Amino acid sequence: MINRVEKLSLLSEMIAFAKYDKDIKNIEYNFLLGVAKQLEITREDFDYLIEHPVTYTHLKSHSERIVQFHRLVLLMNIDQENENNTKGAIKLYNFGLRMGLSHESITKVLYLMESFPNKIVPPDVLIDIFKTQYN
Question: What's the superkingdom here (predicted)?
């Protein structure tokens, strides 16, 4: 289980990811708020993080890093206005590398993402991709 500092770091990272195109859209805000609730972060703390990001904390657990990467994939694809989201894919790739995930797995997820409805890779497929690369 991750601690509060790690949870705040995860959420702060997701907020930074959502801000890459300047503004957090309502749909992204609501998604992030839902993640905050799952992580047991109060709305006040969440709203504070939007203006005051915390320092990145590297997750020790490989499985937690995969879950966080999946959240970022969902966040990137929640906004259907961006049909060709090359900048988002590059940012996602870089976030994955910073988390210590294999570049082969990240590349495969980004490639396969195009073949799924709404570009959302199902969790079991994503886990299989990382499991294959991890072994």
Answer: Bacteria
> How many whole angstroms separate alpha carbon 37 and alpha carbon 69?
18
* pTM: predicted TM-score of the whole model, two decimal places: 0.86
Cα–Cα distance, 13 to 15 (Å, whole number) = 5
User: Per-residue pLDDT tens for 48-84?
Assistant: 999 999 988 888 888 889 989 999 988 888 865 555 5
- DSSP for 23-92 reads S--HHHHHHHHHHHHHTT--HHHHHHHHHSPPPP---S-HHHHHHHHHHHHHHHHH-TT-SS-HHHHHHH
Our measurement of the distance from residue 68's CA atom to the centroid of its chain's CA atoms, rounded to an integer in Å, reads: 5
Domain ranges across the chain: 4-134
